[in-house]
Amino acid sequence: MAGLSLLGLVHNRTMSPEIAATLAVAAEERRSLLFVAIPRMAGKSTTMQAALQYAPRGTTFHQLTRAAGPSLGIPSAPDSGYLVLSEISGAGFPDYLWGDDVRLAFKSLAGGGFSLSTALHAGSVEEAFGVITRENRVPDEHAARIDLVVYIRSIGHWAQPIRRAVAQVYEISGVEDGLPDARLLHRWNEATDSFEVVEDPVRIGTVAADYEQRLAEFSHAAVGR
After folding, report:
1. For residue 181, which of 196, 191, 171 has the smallest C-alpha distance?
2. Which residues, 6 or more positions from 48, have their beta carbon under 8 angstroms from its beta carbon?
3. Model pLDDT, residue 117
4. I need a labelling partner for 29 at 20 to 30 A (CA). Which of 49, 59, 113, 187 fits?
5. Could you tell me the residue ranges of all domains in the chain?
6. Is the pTM higher than 0.85?
């Protein structure tokens, strides 16, 4: 899946045109994004990178890494850019962050000076916020700065899956006692291998992005596959 665009992910049926449009609009509005899956190579990074291609022209991307020192590469002056945290994990890689570093990344979102795009291993949206709030002790009000959660399913052996699909997309309205107020927007029906629109977003798409234009663009890709 490396290097694929949202159009490519629609074309290979990893997601529907509606999901792609939601992701594109979220990135256009500089929403904070969380990508979740259980196995390795499920497509978290690929889907994240594809979505971030729709951030407004001129948006800066700050790759967070311990190699940058105590600041992790977070600029001292907010620039409305994206803080890109490759994965919330204690695995030990320089750009995989845990504990104090994760709390610093979320704290830096205060005031809207930055947005965050990150990923982690979890089996549900509730479990994902448990990793953030309980295991990493991110306060509820900071965790609530995540706007959209994308949960990806990988079917088959993790190294050679026979199917990848964006199984659920949630809009987050708040977090209380570590539990997200999550509105299910999209889901994948595994039995029929089809994507369903569950609810319209309340917040995403209300700033400046044109959802209908994006949907038309991605629907054309789906027709052409």
Report:
1. 171
2. 33, 35, 84, 117, 118, 119
3. 98
4. 187
5. 6-223
6. yes
Tokens read off for 151 = 């949960």
* Six token digits for residue 9: 């992910």
Q: What is the DSSP string of 46-86?
A: HHHHHHHTTSPTT--EEE--GGG-TTTT--SS--SEEEEES
Assigned token pair, 89: 């994990």
Those residues with Cβ within 8 angstroms of residue 117's Cβ, 6 or more apart along the chain or in another chain: 32, 33, 34, 35, 48, 51, 52, 82, 83, 84, 85
Fold (topology level) of 6-223: Rossmann fold (3.40.50)
Residue the block writes with tokens 């994965």: 87
Crossing angle of helices 44-52 and 17-28, in 10° steps, is: 60
Structure tokens at 163: 């199917």
Q: What is the pLDDT of residues 22-67, one digit of tens each?
A: 999 999 999 999 999 986 656 799 999 999 999 999 999 999 999 9
**Dihedral sign, Cα of residue 170, residue 180, residue 155, residue 4:** positive
10 contact partners, CB below 8 Å, separation of at least 6: 16, 17, 20, 218, 221, 222, 225
Tokens of 200: 């319209």
Q: Cβ neighbours of residue 98 under 8 Å, at least 6 residues apart?
A: 88, 89, 90, 136
